[in-house]
Design brief:
The chain is of the alpha+beta class. The strands form two sheets. A four-stranded antiparallel beta sheet has the order 3-4-6-5, with helices on both faces. The protein has a two-stranded antiparallel ribbon with strand order 1-2. A hairpin with a 5-residue loop joins β1 and β2. It has eight helices and six strands, in the order ββαααβααβααβαβ. The protein has one domain: NADH Oxidase (3-Layer(aba) Sandwich), CATH 3.40.109.10. The protein is 46% helix and 15% strand. α4 runs antiparallel to α5 and α6 crosses α7.
Length: 220
Amino acid sequence: MFKLEIESEETCMLLPDDSVFIRNDTLGTIKARRSVRTFTKDEVSDEEIMVLLHAANQAPSAHNQQAWRFVILRGNKKQELAQLVTTQSAAFPKPAAALLRMGAKSIISAPVVIAVVNTGDLIKHGTDLFKVEKEMAHDFFRTMEIQSSAAAVQNILLAATSLGLGTVWLGILYLIKGYVLRFLGEPEGEFMAVVPVGHPAKVGSGPQKQPVEMKARWSS
């Protein structure tokens, strides 16, 4: 499963043999995931959407509060979100505006969009549990809500890949999170992600990842 590569006389790294990503379904799904921005006209079934939502709901969450909400958009509501994004893009400089418009195109292209927002429930309940300064507790639990919801979003991406579906995490929409939250009817939440979902029109090879040995530091 692993092959040994000597980096230097002082250190060595155990690097996984690529075959492990073929033999192990979970690792294979992780490696196969791509950001897909254009989709076919094929619909995503209610059953498939529920599989994605159940996968998201299985993500680890701080104190098991599951302080997230999933909002599913189709049809006119999805088109309205795309129009909102396009309209608001005009207020930003060219690079950000271009990315927002690209996100709007993905929303239009996908048959369904799943939005993920934080509910604030952990902030409300957790602050009373920890006897620390209120502002510190608020920031602490806000961060934990974001971490939990990010795990839920990743589960959506991986579950979709395992079903042969494509997704893209439109992080750029955080620039207009106030508008997005009001549109979603979640004014009290902390905006987390908008994820178009559909059957990929084209699956690219994905960007070249930097070697893990450049990103990891071992300490003992």
